[in-house]
């Protein structure tokens, strides 16, 4: 699965305002509402579900990256938002480092395979440290989108 | 599976033994309906890091470092996927038992719990 298969172009933020875990999750979920990918009526329910998942164990997977996510019945396909916090946010990551790069995923309850393949793509691409650095230092959403497109072309993805 | 270094030797001495560098392996199947997603991948990498041995997971066409959640996630192992765990080092057998145990109890995920999360 490629980034372009799940990242909504209009839900990319190069500089989040939030400085807390819940704050960044709310901001990214709002970006999915603004992009028309999830319904405004479901906003609170989705934020709550993502926070509940975080309570089970942080999705900060190391290297300054987090993948907050949930299943939610209101979506019929996997949708994702991307955000960068240049100064970093404490996310109780597995390695204790602040998180600068976020991929937020909302998937339909009956599609665990798609969710796995999105996680696979994110983790495989982010093994490339220079790619992470480029994303974090991107000047705007268009630049992030461009970097994700390049990674899609470069990666041998199914 | 039964090859061990001298049980009474300390870790440093065990490292010296050729035997202790033997690679042991164990087959497991991903039993969780949601596959090897972020939470079990985290549990697996945490368990693997407790051991001195090198731990690798092998799927059909991939071999990854079991101590890295990023690497484990790149397997995208769905329910039913067969994996081989390989451990190389002085505590290989104990490591394999501990990790195998995680798979045996499906990483404590309960399949008929509708509220189960990724």
Largest sheet of chain A: 6 strands, mixed
| Major β-sheet annotation of chain B | 4 strands, antiparallel
Count of DSSP-assigned helices of chain A: 5
- Unreliable residue stretches of chain B: 1-7, 112-116
Quaternary form: heterodimer
Q: Could you say which overall geometry of chain B the principal axes of the C-alpha atoms support?
A: globular
Q: By helix and strand content of chain B, what is the structural category?
A: alpha+beta
**CATH superfamily grouping of chain B:** HPr-like
Specify Rg of chain A, calculated over alpha carbons. Answer: 14 Å
Structure description:
The complex is a heterodimer of chains A (158) and B (118). Chain A is an alpha/beta fold and 158 residues long. Chain A has a single domain (3-154), classed as Mannitol-specific EII, Chain A (3-Layer(aba) Sandwich). Chain A contains five helices and six strands. In chain A, strands 1, 2, 3, 4, 5 and 6 form a six-stranded mixed sheet that branches. In chain A, strand 2 (60-62) and strand 3 (65-66) form a beta hairpin. Chain A starts with 6 loop residues before the first strand and ends with a helix. Chain B has 118 residues and is of the alpha+beta class. Chain B has one domain (20-108): Histidine-containing Protein, Chain: A. Chain B is 31% helix and 19% strand. Chain B has a four-stranded antiparallel sheet, covered by helices on one side. The chains are: A alpha/beta (158), B alpha+beta (118). The A-B interface holds A 49, 52-53, 56-57, 59, 61-63, 67, 69-71, 94, 107, 112-113, 115-117, 119-120, 122-124, 126-127 and B 33-39, 42, 45-46, 68-71, 73-79, 117-118.
């Amino acid at each position: 699965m490629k980034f372009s298969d799940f990242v909504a172009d209009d839900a990319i933020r190069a500089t989040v305002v939030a400085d807390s875990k819940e704050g960044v999750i709310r901001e990214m979920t709002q970006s999915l509402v603004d992009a028309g990918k999830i319904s405004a009526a479901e906003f609170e329910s989705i934020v709550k579900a993502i926070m509940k998942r975080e309570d089970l164990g942080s999705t900060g997977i190391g290297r300054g990256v987090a993948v907050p996510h949930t299943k939610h019945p209101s979506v019929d396909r996997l949708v994702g938002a991307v955000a960068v916090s240049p100064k970093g946010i404490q996310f109780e990551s597995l390695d204790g480092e602040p998180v600068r790069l976020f991929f937020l995923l909302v998937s339909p309850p009956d599609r665990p395979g798609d969710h796995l393949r999105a996680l696979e793509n994110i983790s495989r691409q982010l093994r490339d440290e220079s790619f992470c650095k480029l994303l974090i230092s991107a000047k705007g959403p268009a630049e992030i989108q461009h970097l994700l497109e390049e990674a899609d072309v470069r990666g041998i993805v199914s | 599976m039964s090859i061990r270094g001298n049980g009474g030797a300390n870790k440093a001495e065990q490292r010296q033994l050729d035997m202790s560098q033997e690679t042991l392996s164990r087959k497991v199947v991903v039993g969780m309906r949601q596959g090897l997603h972020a939470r079990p991948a985290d549990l697996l990498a945490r368990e693997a890091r407790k051991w001195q041995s090198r731990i690798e997971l092998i799927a059909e066409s991939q071999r990854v470092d079991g101590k890295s959640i990023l690497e484990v996630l790149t397997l995208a192992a769905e329910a039913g996927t067969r994996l081989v765990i390989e451990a190389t080092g002085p505590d290989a057998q104990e490591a394999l038992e501990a990790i195998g145990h995680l798979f045996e109890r499906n990483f404590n995920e309960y399949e008929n719990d509708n509220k189960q999360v990724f």
